[in-house]
């Protein structure tokens, strides 16, 4: 992914100029911290708290929006397969394991920039929808803060050696297309989720379709892992909301900083909720690791595992050879590939289980213990 070429050389020179001029330990810490704050793991931790704070509509819309952004951005990355700036000569700062994994992806567009534009822009739209924040000065301050954040994130990605100016502009442009589109359709999506018919089955089919429609990059990258995780999160949220909207997620639920939901109560929710969803994630992963290989073998689908199941990390079981003509395999186009990576399904189900517990199991526990 670092092979030399005209585009790669041009991008590397742009980044190199910035890095050589502005390297400083304080800037390393600042931009690394900002990158963590707008990273996928941060959103994964932040969104459950948003649900439990009483802002259910905002939380589910931001969850679906980041899943959409993640799919679009990573699909473009793996379709274009444009390399990141070469390191060396560019100095790349990877302060966390997440950043090390990000460095293995392709470069165009910058997902951090894209996600920041869409999520901060949507959050601003949500805040300004309240009457008390409709005056011109509040709008100006809000837009200025969003622009500042987006600018710092874009500059930071260049400074850290993770992206070039081309990557950042690409992320910005795609974000500016997605954001107004989402603001246009989000009300319709929300109405469908909370009151539509056959929503769970529709979303299951959509999730399955998105998994198999994902493009194949020139070289394997972690991008599909991020998409699979948020695809599972979106499905778990939708399935849980469908079942519990009128109990736990309607617009009249108590919100944080009100007498009905004090800070102390919210801390209690965090102390109970976070360990619970982590436990559900572990259980979902263990269950999927046991069930999916059995189901795959029963249906004649050749499988392998790139990490979760050590005894399947070869080229697939020998029995695959005698199952190549299975009906299910032909139906889902597995005949075009030797084996299917069962880790994709395991990852999907563990994050779907985690998300379901955020909006269904954990709120049920809250009601049982009067939180």
Secondary-structure blueprint of this entry?
Elements lengths: L5 H17 L2 H13 L2 H13 L3 H25 L16 H6 L8 H18 L7 H24 L5 H31 L3 H15 L9 H27 L13 H36 L4 E2 L22 H5 L8 E2 H27 L3
Parallel strand pairs: 1-2
Helix pairs in contact: 2-7, 3-4, 4-6, 4-8, 4-10, 6-7, 6-8, 7-8, 9-10, 10-13, 11-13
Counting DSSP E segments of at least 2 residues, the number of strands comes to 2
Tell me the strand percentage band.
under 5%
Helix content: 55-70%
What integer is the average pLDDT?
Answer: 82
Subcellular location: Endoplasmic reticulum membrane
GO molecular function: hydrolase activity
InterPro entries: PAP2/HPO (IPR000326), PAP2/HPO_sf (IPR036938)
Organism: Juglans regia (English walnut)
Structural description of this entry:
With 371 residues, this protein is mainly alpha-helical. The chain has a domain at 1-185. Helix content is 69%, strand content 1%. Strand 1, helix 12 and strand 2 (340-341) form a beta-alpha-beta unit. The longest helix has 36 residues, at 263-298. The radius of gyration is 22 Å and the shape is globular. Mean pLDDT is 82; it is low at 1-5 and 315-335.
Notable traits:
371 residues, mainly alpha, two-stranded parallel ribbon, 13 helices, disordered N terminus
Summed up:
This protein is about 70% helix and about 0% strand.
């Amino acid at each position: 992914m670092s092979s030399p070429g005209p585009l790669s050389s041009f991008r590397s020179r742009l980044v190199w100029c910035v890095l050589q001029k502005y390297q400083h330990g304080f800037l390393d810490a600042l931009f690394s911290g900002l990158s963590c704050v707008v990273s996928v793991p941060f959103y994964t931790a932040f969104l459950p708290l948003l649900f439990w704070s009483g802002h259910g509509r905002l939380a589910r819309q931001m969850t679906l929006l980041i899943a959409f952004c993640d799919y679009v951005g990573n699909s473009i990355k793996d379709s274009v397969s444009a390399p990141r700036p070469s390191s060396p000569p560019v100095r790349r700062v990877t302060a966390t394991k997440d950043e090390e994994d990000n460095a293995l992806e392709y470069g165009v567009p910058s997902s951090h920039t894209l996600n920041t534009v869409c999520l901060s822009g949507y959050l601003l739209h949500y805040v300004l929808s309240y009457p008390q924040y409709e005056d011109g000065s509040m709008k100006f301050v809000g837009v200025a803060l969003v622009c500042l954040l987006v600018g710092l994130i874009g500059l930071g990605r260049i400074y850290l050696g993770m992206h070039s100016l081309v990557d950042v502009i690409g992320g910005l442009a795609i974000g500016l297309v997605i954001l107004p589109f989402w603001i246009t359709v989000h009300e319709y999506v929300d109405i469908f989720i909370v009151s539509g018919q056959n929503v769970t089955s529709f979303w299951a089919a959509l999730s399955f379709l998105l998994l198999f429609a994902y493009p194949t990059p020139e070289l394997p990258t972690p991008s599909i892992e991020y998409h699979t995780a948020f695809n599972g999160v979106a499905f778990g949220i939708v399935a849980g909301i469908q079942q519990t909207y009128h109990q736990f997620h309607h617009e009249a639920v108590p919100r944080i900083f009100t007498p009905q939901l004090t800070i102390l109560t919210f801390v209690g929710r965090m102390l109970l909720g976070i360990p619970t969803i982590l436990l559900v994630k572990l259980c979902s992963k263990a269950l999927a690791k046991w069930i999916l290989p059995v189901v795959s073998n029963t249906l004649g689908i050749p499988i392998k595992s790139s990490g979760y199941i050590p005894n399947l990390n070869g080229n697939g079981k020998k029995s695959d050879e005698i199952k190549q003509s299975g009906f299910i395999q032909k139906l889902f186009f597995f005949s075009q590939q030797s084996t299917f990576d069962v880790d994709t399904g395991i990852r999907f189900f563990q994050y779907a289980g985690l998300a379901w517990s955020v909006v269904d199991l954990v709120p049920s526990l809250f009601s049982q213990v009067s939180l």
